[in-house]
Amino acid sequence: MARRRKDKLDWSGIPIETIIDREFGRNPELKSGMSAYADMLAEWEESGDGERFLERLLDHAGAAYRKAGNARAELYTFSDGAANFLFDMVRERVVLVWGVSKTVAPNTRDNAYHAGYPTAGKNLDKGHAWSHAQGGREGGPNYFRQARRLNQARSSNGKLWRAIESHLAANAGLSAFIRLIYAKGNVGDRPDEVEYGILSGSGQFRSVIFPNS
Q1: Helix (H) and strand (E) counts for the chain?
Q2: What is the C-alpha to C-alpha distance for residues 104 and 134, in angstroms, rounded to an integer?
Q3: Regarding predicted confidence, which is higher, 199 or 88?
Q4: How would you class 183 by CB atoms within 10 Å of its CB: exposed for 0-12, middle for 13-18, buried for 19 or more?
């Protein structure tokens, strides 16, 4: 019997948490970040305190970043009006992006601005951490140097990344975050891994860590 090709799997007709769980079972490049959030999720489910959950999320991201060889980081938070950012002023790079998905009118992306922004490098794209389709803005801190096969839906990793973005774009009001992970010794602005955390439309939380290669 002929085996079904992996790239023929359904990427749009099933719940996003089912897609993520399926990919964990078939894609050895992916890692789950769920264990890091178990306590804070349990606290959030019991108290419903979203502000406290955000504080703990920021604490976790900052602590993990400092532990990875950035003890002297100067971390600040700010918003560009669409998403929020945790930014290291010393290395001049983004550590965490988070926000709530919004409805975006079709054909409103500034393609001219995007095309005019400096190129990211060989086999890299100017990736959006918070995609335009889910309410993100062009340029500035929302761009990061993203592996082309992750940014574009031409690989299993890219298809899952796109599926998460599409779920957020189709469901306004969902909370999510993107954590840019820099390995020890990486002093540049290209993360080694990227973590996508999402509270889906069904209220389930998932965290996926992608290689940025």
Answers
A1: 6, 9
A2: 7
A3: 88
A4: exposed
Give the tens place of pLDDT for each residue, 22-77.
999 999 999 999 999 999 999 988 888 888 999 999 999 999 999 999 999 999 99
Enter the tokens of residue 46.
């019991």
Query: What strand order describes the sheet that includes 205-211?
Result: 31-32, 205-211, 193-199, 175-181, 93-100, 84-88, 75-79
CA distance 11 to 92: 36
Region label for 65, one of left (φ > 0), alpha (ψ between -120 and 50) or beta (otherwise): alpha
Query: What's at 148, amino acid-wise?
Result: R
Q: Provide the residue type at 15 as one letter.
A: P
pLDDT tens-place string over residues 99-144? 999 988 665 555 554 454 556 577 899 899 999 899 888 878 999 9
Amino acid of residue 103: T
How many Cβ atoms from other residues are within 10 Å of residue 154's Cβ?
13
Residue in the structure block whose two tokens are 């306004």: 172
**Which of 13, 37, 15, 9 is closest to 195 using CA atoms?**
37
Written as six digits, the tokens of 102 are 């919004």
> CA quadruple 115, 117, 118, 121: dihedral positive or negative?
negative
**For residue 103, what are its two tokens?**
């409805």
Whole-model pTM above 0.85? yes
